[in-house]
Model the fold of this input.
Amino acid sequence: MGSERLGAFNEAHVKLINEYLDSNLTRFAKSCSQRFTPLLEAMRYSLEGGGKRLRPLLVLSAAEALGIKAKDVLPAACAMEYIHTYSLIHDDLPALDDDDTRRGKPSSHKRFGEAVAILAGDALLTEAFGQVLLLGESKTFHPAQILGVIDLLAHNSGVRGMVGGQLLDVTIDTTDASLPEIEFIHIHKTGALILASVLIPTKLIPLEEEKSQKFRRYGEALGLAFQISDDILDSETSMRYSRGPRKKPKPCYTQVMSPSEMREKLNRLINSAITAIESLGDKAQNLVDIAEIIRTRKA
Ligand code: FPP
Ligand code: MG
Done:
């Protein structure tokens, strides 16, 4: 499965992320009335549904590339997984993609009913911002820097990022979408959250603009590359394990590019992502490894 592949190069990071997600949700649940248990159960079901943890891995790897300890950014890594998980729960709803399965299991609304699935998504999004505030617990970061992370997440996950992209994804006329339109959707719907994951650590320490631009170029190229790799996987398999058969047509690169053009574009973007951070040296090796895994991913 995908999580094994992404984790293979850095099991320590995946372990850190999974343990933090688990202990943190347990701690959070203890602060809630037992009446809310069904909501917490639905949140946990999707959080532990077998995701690759790509976004939190990017947060930890970008932090280490800047000399920040991985454990100090775990709350932000967890926030990214919360936002990603909420987006998948809502994406699967009948009003959006209407997908019955996710990662080989019933999607949230199939397991818990639509009302609880909608609320589990709402809860994950809201609590993600509470998570970011926990960055303050280690006393490593200045409150103004933590506010910078909140600003970044609001920007990249909201109207100007993922939610805006999702609006276009579900409303576009898929029969004659052009390449620039499809790319605009992908940059927002998928790329914005991946870019935010890479940029979070750049907000947490004083950093010269030139250096933060390297992370931005890496994150932008990787975000688009990831969606192209997703479209390639979709085009190669009529039924993806991760999602099940599609009920609704989606704007995707397959409509405007041949398989070899998609491959070529994916390679170009991965090369640009790696070039952008090359000068950071060994500290950025995990970021390079993630890019290489996306180049050849099979799940
Ligand atoms: C798979 O990620 C997900 C994508 C390629 C992004 C698709 C975008 C959305 C679902 C946005 C939906 C937005 C709203 C507001 C509903 P992955 O392969 O990392 O998934 P994994 O966690 O299962 O590994
Ligand atoms: Mg979708």
Notes: The first strand starts at residue 101 and ends at 102. The chain has one domain: 3-296. The domain at 3-296 is CATH 1.10.600.10 (Farnesyl Diphosphate Synthase).
